[in-house]
Amino acid sequence: MAAVTLSTKPAASVIDLEGVSIGYGKDAPPVLVDVDLSVERGSFVAIVGPSGVGKSTLLRVVAGLHTARGGKVTIHQDQRPGHRPVGLVFQDSRLLPWRRVIRNVEFGLEGLPVSRDERRRRAEAALKLVRLEGYAGRWPYELSGGQRQRIGIARAMAVDPDILLMDEPFGALDAITRHNLQDELRRIHQETGKTVLFVTHDLEEAVHLADRIIVLGGTPARVVRDVRNSAGRDGSVFRDQVEQLRSEIADNYSI
Amino acid sequence: MKTRNKIALSALGVIVFLLMWEALARSGVVPARLLPSPSAVPAAFLTEFRSGTWQQMVLASLSHYLVGLGLGTLLGVSFGTAAALWGRWDAFQAWVVRMLRPIPAIAWIPFAIIWFGVSEGAASFLISLTVFWINYYASYAAVRAVDKDLIELGYAFGQGGLIPRLFKIVLPGALPGILSGVRAGLGQGWMTVVAAELFGISGLGMRMMEASGLLATNIVVLYMVTIALLYGVSDFLFMQIQSRVLSWQR
């Protein structure tokens, strides 16, 4: 069994996975094996693969919510006070319905050595980052699906994480909202330089957002492709480049 | 339906009920001693009020009620929450609960008298028993039903320890269900007040027993109405608080 190791030694990568394998039951066969992955600081890495391949579970392992069956998971943490190593964004936003927006954004800061004023200031800055500064006093039920996801992103960004983990965050949104939020996320990534590990089953989304795409496939699944994507990086996505990458990755999907 | 129409209809319902009752009592079909007319109640109230009996009985019952309600609610919510949170504790107490649960509060009257005497404590004890079980089960179910995803959210953001998990996620998440239990206990508590006082502890129930012994049925009805009003007021006040506390709900 492998838990997450937090390391404060300086490193070029934020996360190192070495030979990680994942399974659900004690005796059930593993779903994901031999995952080696280094995520460089400041990069935007997408993990794609068919559903059931274990991509969300891999993310949950990094977040410390699921224990890997074997291998080693290391997060290289910055030595700055008042932050958490990971900030997690869920597909279903998971706002606490009994807290107003601002208190939801403050949630992850509670328990950190951060004064009340500092907490509020950071939550307000995070709301501003997702362009919802006017929504601090709202209840979650008063928000649209897209706004709820933005608050989820603000909550994760407020803890100033070493890495932002996103589990199909736009999967449940309509196409227009999804595209808007994809653009927002690119902007946030460029503005803050945060390292992002992004799980999606949508190749187009991965190509559009990430500068590196990890493809999982097979039974049990393993990393079948590790692609550097120059298309998304500078913000101008060239159609043919996307198509080429898409077909290249799609070939691996059926493995 | 508009709120105004709703209020008007409820008022109409009460008036029709009282008129039919009055008509039945006056028709002579039922002897006046067996069924007093509602119009006889105000006179009974004035007599009881002038002598100070009414106030004394209401205050006595209120004190039994509030102590029993407070204690039963607190313990019921605590034990119900604990059983829902910890599987081992749940298993340990499951059969004890099954054995004790079906015994009605009234069945404890002999023990209440032996332990507390014919005293305020005995009445409060019986009320708290009734209220305890309602809150125990309501809290148990409410805590069990808290969204597991929100608990996971707590772990993801460093709030997975017992205290933050309990106070930031479990209890707020279970609050609507817990408050429904408190409200049900509020009503059941009043029912037990009367039963607990029937054996001579000063209060509304005792006064009703005295009056029925003298066939003063109008006084019996007066205290029935008093209980109904007290319940109505406490339930209304509780609803006001509840809607405030749960204003985050759609």
TrEMBL record, chain A:
Entries under PANTHER family matching the protein: ALIPHATIC SULFONATES IMPORT ATP-BINDING PROTEIN SSUB (PTHR42788:SF13), TAURINE IMPORT ATP-BINDING PROTEIN-RELATED (PTHR42788)
Name of protein: NitT/TauT family transport system ATP-binding protein
Presence of keyword Transport: yes
Family: Belongs to the ABC transporter superfamily.
An example Gene Ontology molecular-function term: ATP binding
Signal peptide range: none
Keyword Transport: yes
Source organism of this protein record: Azospirillum picis
InterPro entries assigned: AAA+_ATPase, ABC_transporter-like_ATP-bd, ABC_transporter-like_CS, ABC_transporter_ATP-bind, P-loop_NTPase
Pfam families: ABC_tran
Keywords for this protein: ATP-binding, Nucleotide-binding, Transport
Domain (ABC transporter) ranges: 15-243
UniProtKB/TrEMBL annotation, chain B:
Subcellular location: Cell membrane
Family in the record: Belongs to the binding-protein-dependent transport system permease family.
Main location as per UniProt: membrane
Bilayer disposition of the protein: Multi-pass membrane protein
Transmembrane intervals: 65-87, 99-118, 124-143, 213-233
Record Pfam families: BPD_transp_1
Domain ABC transmembrane type-1 positions: 58-238
Record lineage: Bacteria, Pseudomonadati, Pseudomonadota, Alphaproteobacteria, Rhodospirillales
Keywords, comma-separated and alphabetical: Cell membrane, Membrane, Transmembrane, Transmembrane helix, Transport
Organism: Azospirillum picis
Listed name of the protein: NitT/TauT family transport system permease protein
InterPro entries linked: MetI-like, MetI-like_sf
Gene3D superfamilies xrefs: MetI-like
Domain of life (superkingdom): Bacteria
